[in-house]
Amino acid sequence: MTQAMQRQEAVTIHKNEAFAAVAEQLKPRLIYRECSPKQIVHVIKNEHMIHGWQAEGVQNAEDLADLLFGKGEEVILDFGEHLVGKLAIRIVPVGSPPDAPLHLQITLGEMPVEMAEPFSEYNGWLSSSWLQEERVHLDVLPGILNLERRYSFRYLKLKVLDTSPKYKVSFEEISCTAVTSADRSALSPLIHTDPELQAIDEVSVKTLEECMQEVFEDGPKRDRRLWLGDLRLQALANYETFSGNELVKRCLYLFAAYPDERGRITANLFMKPQVIADDTYLYDYSLFFVATLHDYFLATEDLSTLEELWPSAYRQIELGLERLDERGIVTDDESWWSFIDWHPKLNKQAPSQAILIYNLKRALHLASLLGDERKDELEQVIGTLTQAAMEHLWDPESGYFISGSQRQVSYASQIWMVLAGVLVPEHGKELMLRLLDDENSAIPMSTPYMVHHFIEALIQVGERELAIRGMKKYWGQMIKDGADTFWELYDPKDKSFSPYGSPLINSYCHAWSCTPTYLIRKYKL
Amino acid sequence: MTQAMQRQEAVTIHKNEAFAAVAEQLKPRLIYRECSPKQIVHVIKNEHMIHGWQAEGVQNAEDLADLLFGKGEEVILDFGEHLVGKLAIRIVPVGSPPDAPLHLQITLGEMPVEMAEPFSEYNGWLSSSWLQEERVHLDVLPGILNLERRYSFRYLKLKVLDTSPKYKVSFEEISCTAVTSADRSALSPLIHTDPELQAIDEVSVKTLEECMQEVFEDGPKRDRRLWLGDLRLQALANYETFSGNELVKRCLYLFAAYPDERGRITANLFMKPQVIADDTYLYDYSLFFVATLHDYFLATEDLSTLEELWPSAYRQIELGLERLDERGIVTDDESWWSFIDWHPKLNKQAPSQAILIYNLKRALHLASLLGDERKDELEQVIGTLTQAAMEHLWDPESGYFISGSQRQVSYASQIWMVLAGVLVPEHGKELMLRLLDDENSAIPMSTPYMVHHFIEALIQVGERELAIRGMKKYWGQMIKDGADTFWELYDPKDKSFSPYGSPLINSYCHAWSCTPTYLIRKYKL
User: Fold this and answer.
1) How far apart are CA A445 and CA A342, in angstroms?
2) Which residues in chain A are closer than 8 Å to B126, comparing Cβ atoms?
3) Could you say which of 1.10.630.10, 3.40.190.150, 1.50.10.10, 3.30.420.40 is the CATH number of the domain covering A184-522?
4) Fold for domain B32-180?
5) What is the CA radius of gyration of chain B?
6) Of chain A residues 161-190, which have a CB less than 8 A from chain B?
7) Which residue range or ranges hold the Glycosyl hydrolase family 78 alpha-rhamnosidase N-terminal domain (chains A, B) (predicted)?
8) Does residue B504 contact residue B119 with C-beta atoms inside 8 Å?
9) CA distance B140 to chain A (A)
10) pLDDT for the residue numbered B1
11) How far apart are CA A12 and CA A10, in angstroms?
12) Over the stretch A360-370, which tens digit does the pLDDT of each residue have?
């Protein structure tokens, strides 16, 4: 209890007040919608369903007001769709006047598993405080319980922990005020001839919509933060759908407003109580500021934003280059963290090299557009780094890029080298096909984030059919497994996988999984 | 879950709007006071202490802000006095920016046992919803947690259920806004030569103060309701101390405003969401409306209130008399409930007979004052009932009043017959002394409420020294056992006794236990 905790090494933030002011002015108008539960459900064991649980409708939610709940009794409601918002519950006592408070437990879940498995047994390594469960006492009944927090859910469980022997309660009215900053009226509809792609697009759009709040959040249930890696993909999906371009601009300004003393951009920002740059810096994420700005300019042609934020972007390139060793290869040691993907054994060197090249190329494009004289220098560096990659990271014998001192072969390395255009297109195609034929030897992908890049790499090498097949196998299967919104994590071979030690804590509506709508629409799949 | 619950037999309330309006206008001004914790304590096992637990100071509460708390860590604070009020806690994160909500458990207790024994193991028969424990999630830190509910406590335990590995929290500032409608500036101090009586008086006054809110509550922790039996005693203590006579008037009007269709006054009222008469009717409590009005008039000489409420009081007498059998004895059967005392085996017939006579005598006094022509009738009935009591309930052989078909001898029967003046003073004195000499054969007293009447009966028969000794043995011992305010329940021979199955749910600041200040001051003990 009295043990002091060491704060992490202090990082000094050099706030750019002007950028912060621009971001503040761009705060979006939130759009609200009133939603009601659709069904009363039972959650039953079913080993064929994801996590082993199935929600089964048993009664229309309109019947709820007629049901009475005493000590220990509970009900599970299904809102019929994933929602992000606040809850209000009108609770009426039945019996004698309530001679003791009502003690009520409220559990919210995106998935049936959250309704079925008790949170008290959660033992994962992310904080249990993310589990959406409240206990409240109501001293005065009847009354409306307005829960102050915002939840991300489809299912709601109400359990009466206690009343008194003299009364029970009924839940007369339950409503969720759903919230988003995504404007559906701006959404161009997709009418696809392939109903499976149509469905994948719809779930993607819904996923994006739920994550579009005052910023692009990574997940409305867990983290709820603005992450640069997620932002990049959300922005891409957004340009094809809601066109909430001001929100992208706001997020770019936010990141640019809170660099550290060296100009390095944080991996993520907290928005409350005020904007705070997290003390997490990821090699790849900082670099993606360049790509995100690049994509934003391509979508909007907003030159003044580009001009204003270009120095911040260029600075990420400079810092990225500082990690190069004398060979022109990103140094791999214990001191850094590059995200790339969740796989615990994944070596980050080769994919980081590729991501550096990927962003250098976008920087070069922007420098050309802006007439920045450092253009030539960038071009030269791209050449050097590409050559270094081929010389030191390409293994001609196996035909794969290798990473780290253990010469690890991973999907991530191959995919990012393809996306970075390190190989000529024909060789990129061969590499991707080799990878597909030989899938067990490489460190696999472990997140939709990585699978997105895999699909995009297939498209880039011209394998559109393989891309579509891959998308259906992954996001299409996720829908078959019950996704209303796309999940943070999904392994078709191990559907309850969680890198956090429990699927209860996984986010089932996650920004980085919303990209199929971008891939389908952008590439007209 | 869907099982319907039968409402208790419907009682129709005939609301008197005019009386309700008077009560509403008399709503007292609440007085607020800011209080801080005094010490950090450990609660340790000590079999010599009440409930086996002792709070031991370990650090000044001012040091609290320097301590950090991570997952599973907790602190117990002692405010140094019993408080009724609302809590505010300023919570500051230490470490990286909070990347997960704080999940905090807040436990409040009047006694060390509430800090030591987990509420999850509570298995008593009163609703566990009275146990003062909250679980809250804080999404934004630093922040001030303002708990909405009012608590009754001296001790506060804060336990971090979870944060995240990246941060801990400190509790920078904790304050309680204590509330009462008792005005200390109106309190006449007592300077007693006997320090033990002085201390008993002080704790009595504090108990009364804590229970004086928008009405006289029975206990600020549990029930928090206006009970007629408690009101009568609180009013008596109040006349000698805070003189909050308007509050007594308000409570009298409240009871008179919500009779049933027969004019019967409820045992208690709920105040929220609006005034509701409980569907509990107690034979003795309804009758005590007469005594309470009588005492109020003696203290205030407020004739207009007496005139206005006299019909309500008289109606209780009429209804009380309806229970008489042909012998003039209160009928004992399965259909009624007279409170008298908590002892599970106590027969209520004889004490109820005495309480009817006790209130008849006060009604007679009021009728005389008002010139009510029914005075003579009342006088005659008192004679009849007294004679009937002597004839059918007095057992000359044992020298005790007996009650019920089993001819039960109880403290309650003897005490109330003495208080009702059924015996001539000399015989009353003999009876009380006989009872004291012979304490094991009679059904004993089980609440401070009953012990109060025992002490008053001793005073009434002139045994002032025995009364003082009894008071010290009971309330004095309660103080030695750690009472800051007097407890709802106390058995010096079985200190953890609870009629509810667990001492956790007992109220440790209870209206009916506040009477020593009345006895000491009124009778100049």
Assistant:
1) 8
2) 100, 164
3) 1.50.10.10
4) Jelly Rolls (2.60.120)
5) 25
6) 161-168
7) 37-178
8) yes
9) 6
10) 23
11) 6
12) 999 999 999 99
Give the per-residue pLDDT at B290: 98
Sort B185 into a burial class: Cβ within 10 Å, 0-12 / 13-18 / 19+: exposed
Give the DSSP per-residue string, B198-209.
HHHHHHHHHHHH
Interface touch B129/A164, C-beta < 8 Å? yes
The residue of chain B nearest to residue A161, with distances taken between CA atoms, is B129
User: Given CB atoms, is B191 within the 8 Å cutoff of chain A?
Assistant: no
The A residues from 217 to 246 touching B (CB cutoff 8 Å) are 223, 225
Handedness of CA B264, B268, B273, B279 (dihedral sign): negative
* Distance, first Cα to last Cα, chain B: 57
Which positions in chain A touch B8 (Cβ < 8 Å)?
A: 95-96, 166
Architecture (CATH level 2) of domain B186-522: Alpha/alpha barrel (1.50)
> Is A70 close to B5, i.e. CB distance below 8 A?
yes
- Chain A residues inside the 8 Å CB shell of B139: 149, 272
Domain boundaries, chain B: 32-180, 186-522
| Model pLDDT for residues B191-204, shown as the tens digit of each residue | 999 999 999 999 99
B142 contacts in chain A (CB < 8 Å):
273
Q: How far apart are CA A233 and CA A518, in angstroms?
A: 9
pLDDT in tens, A276-333: 999 999 999 999 999 999 999 999 999 999 999 999 999 999 999 999 999 999 999 9
* Side-chain-facing half-sphere of B99: CA atoms under 13 Å: 18
Which residues in chain B touch residue A63, judged by CB atoms under 8 angstroms apart?
none
CA B487 to chain centre: 8
Structure tokens at A466: 């393989």
Report the distance separating Cα A400 and Cα A383, nearest Å: 20
Q: Do A130 and B102 touch (CB under 8 A)?
A: no
B279/A97 CB distance under 8 A: yes
Q: Does B440 touch chain A (CB under 8 A)?
A: no
Q: What is the mean pLDDT of residues A430-434?
A: 96
Cα dihedral B279/B232/B209/B266 (nearest 10)? 10
A118, A90 contact by CB (below 8 A): no
What's the confidence (pLDDT) of residue A7? Answer: 33
pLDDT of residue A8: 45
ipTM over cut 0.85:
yes
DSSP three-state, residue A236: helix
Q: Does the CB of B507 have a partner CB in chain A at under 8 Å?
A: no
Q: Which residue of B has its CA nearest to A163?
A: B127
- Report the distance separating Cα A449 and Cα A470, nearest Å: 14
Q: How far is CA B525 from CA B339, B361, B520, in A?
A: 29, 25, 5
Cα-Cα-Cα-Cα torsion B400, B401, B407, B409, nearest 10 degrees, comes to -60
Confidence band for B2, pLDDT divided at 50, 70 and 90? very low
Interior/surface letters B287-307, b for 16+ CB within 10 angstroms, e for the rest: bbbbbbbbbbbebbebeebbe
Write down the CATH number for the domain with range A33-180.
2.60.120.260
Window A:108-137, CB contacts with B under 8 Å: 125-130, 134-135, 137
CA distance B108 to B176: 12
**A372: distance to nearest CA of chain B, Å?**
37
CA separation for the pair B500, B123 (Å, rounded): 9
Residue B494: which residues within 8 A CB-CB, separation 6 or more?
none
Question: Pairing state of beta strands B133-138 and A268-270?
Answer: unpaired
3-state secondary structure of A327: coil
Structure tokens at A436: 């597909």
